[in-house]
Amino acid sequence: MASTSLSAAQSSLRRYLPLIITLDNAKSGLFYYVVIIYVIKAHRHLRARGITASARELYTWISQHVIRLILRVPSTRQKVAAQMDKAKLDIENRLVPKGENVKRHLTLPSEGKNLEWIIQEMDTMDTELGGSGDSWKQGKLSGAVYHGGDELTKIIVAAYSRYCVSNPLHPEVFPAIRKMEAEIVAMCLKMYHGPSGSGGTMTSGGTESIIMALKTYRDWARSVKGIKEPEIIVSTTAHAAFDKGAAYLGLKIHTIAIDPYTRQVNVKHVKRAINPNTILLVGSCVNFPDGNQDDIEALALLAKKNKIGLHVDCCLGSFIVPFLEAAGLSKGNSNGRYRLTPFDFTVDGVTSISCDTHKYGFAPKGTSVIMYRTTELRRFQYYVNPSWSGGVYASPSLSGSRPGALIAGCWAVMQHMGTEGYLSSCREIVTAARTIADAITDDIPELYVLGDPPASVVAFGSKHPNVDPLEVGDGMSRRGWHLNGLSQPKSVHIACTRLTLPLVDQFIADLKDSVREAKVAPSGKGSMVAVYGLGNSSAVGPEMVGQLASTFLDALYKA
Ligand SMILES: *Cc1c(COP(=O)(O)O)cnc(C)c1O
Questions:
Q1: What's the whole-model pTM score?
Q2: Could you say which DSSP state residue 131 is in?
Q3: In this structure, are strands 393-395 and 199-203 parallel, antiparallel, or unpaired?
Q4: Is residue 501 a part of any domain in this protein?
Q5: Helices 51-72 and 74-95: crossing angle, nearest 10°?
Q6: For residues 370 and 387, what is the distance between their CA atoms, to the nearest angstrom?
């Protein structure tokens, strides 16, 4: 009896022991697996960012958490809330008209109004809001309005009104719109030397083009390479649309430092950041902050070697960079400055390019083109739902219904400008930018030009200890200029457009005056100094600027 139960126990032990051991192994195996995964992730992160940058990141992360904790203490919370309320009032006072006699339209009129009434109401708004309807015509802008000529406006309006109700979601109903969109993409592919088999789509703007590209690579990498935790590598000068897209789509983004002199992404650091989860490298031609281009050829070699994508952001370069060579400007000046190196599909390894027709293409706002080296790659951009109760649903980009009228406007502008028109625009605008850059380099010893911008943007920083470039920017604001303040380093830029052409001498004179003023009597009160000074001055800065920015967005919707 005893021996039978013993043998039964033995046999059951024999049966279950392996299981118990495996379970134990599995547990520790799982433990080691998790540890290894984290070690790999940490190692990749460290490789990508470097030890100092990772330490700085950790420090920033900790200090921001500490700050958030401090901000929760009731007394500080009240102080911050009071400051924020004040800032909110400030912002609203600047944006939103106040007073009893401002007519507000907060509910639908019970009876519809006629055209005459509508135009009159718009006139009233324009005058009441400080004649803002056409203040841009003074031309003291950075970017924003790229052409603005009356003749071109007439052409856009004519095309728009003709196709006002059209929607490319229904190509059988609006066949002309379908044809025009395909032709716009084809013309852009030609400009950027798309090989046979390349393709693209239109989108609503540079941001959508970039977000669609990110989605394309994410789905491509998942399907072709089985990557489930995709990562992309950009530079600090890449447009914020990449961060926005990565945030929307759940991609990990590595932001790589640039060379402070050339302002190009440090390719060695990009190489170090590549790991098996990397799906995409990004280069700009030209970048938004300082108008320099990345070394696209070097990035392309890396992308090819690792069998990943390379997106070239030509949203700003748009209809300038493809014409620089023909304009005789791609080789730079006699000092070897402002040279343009290859950036388009002629560079093997470039797999997609975004180009904003609504910037230097002079098309109406709300148009951009995203191009791919192969139509197979473009497939990953599409969204298709064959089993929707509303019918088979297929759309090429983010929007469902789209404004066909904008496509018509874009097509009309491209036909009107032609190669000759864009070529002379490129020549004039780039010459204006280089005249400004040369004047800063040669005649304003307190300032320097960031890098060697080959196209239309010029950014300046300060090399004089008593001249704050943001203070210079505020001086320019007092002289009627709307320029952009930048960080890393503190600097200011102008994106020259057709509106800048008659104002080049004025710009240089105003800049000299602003430098003199900034040196002798800095006010320290302008908005550039306030915003960017705050953002960079302390650990609290980014948190506060973030809150302020959201307050600003709230104010936009105050009726
Ligand atoms: C303007 C710009 C974008 C984004 O374009 P939007 O049309 O404003 O969405 C992207 N990249 C660069 C370099 C740009 O200048």
A1: 0.90
A2: S
A3: unpaired
A4: yes
A5: 100
A6: 28
The answer, yes or no, to whether residue 165 has pLDDT greater than 50, is: yes
Tell me, yes or no, whether 280 and 412 share the same domain.
yes
414 and 507, same structural domain?
no
Considering only CA atoms, which of 476, 390, 389, 396 is closest in space to residue 213?
396
Please report, as a single letter, which amino acid is at residue 359: K
Helices H / strands E in the chain, number of each: 16, 13
Q: Does the structure show a pLDDT above 50 at 1? A: no
Residues 335 and 351 in one domain: yes
Q: Is the CB of 313 under 6 A from ligand 1?
A: yes
Is residue 304 domain-shared with residue 414, that is, in the same domain?
yes
Residues 402 and 323 grouped into a single domain:
yes
Residue 26 phi/psi, 5° resolution?
A: -60, -40
Asked, for residue 200, whether it belongs to a domain, the answer is yes
Q: End of a domain among 396, 418, 440?
A: 418
Question: Which residues are CB-contacts of 246 (< 8 A; sequence separation ≥ 6)?
Answer: 214, 232, 252, 253
The answer to whether residues 354 and 202 touch, using CB atoms and an 8 Å cutoff, is no
**Tens digit of pLDDT for each residue in 222-259?**
999 999 999 999 999 999 999 999 999 999 999 999 99
Co-location of 240 and 338 in the same domain: yes
Please state, in angstroms and rounded to a whole number, the distance separating the CA atoms of residues 276 and 257.
21
3-state secondary structure of 152: helix
Q: Which of 292, 312, 315 to mutate to test the pocket of ligand 1 (most atoms within 8 A of CB)?
A: 315
Claim to verify: residue 471 and residue 330 sit in the same structural domain:
no
Determine the atom of ligand 1 nearest the C-alpha atom of 368.
7
Q: Per-residue confidence at 79, pLDDT binned at 50, 70, 90?
A: confident
Ligand 1, atom 3, lies closest to the CA of 206
Atom of ligand 1 minimally distant from the CA of 206: 5
**558: Cα separation from own chain's centroid:** 26
Mark which of 418, 451, 473 sits at the end of a domain.
418
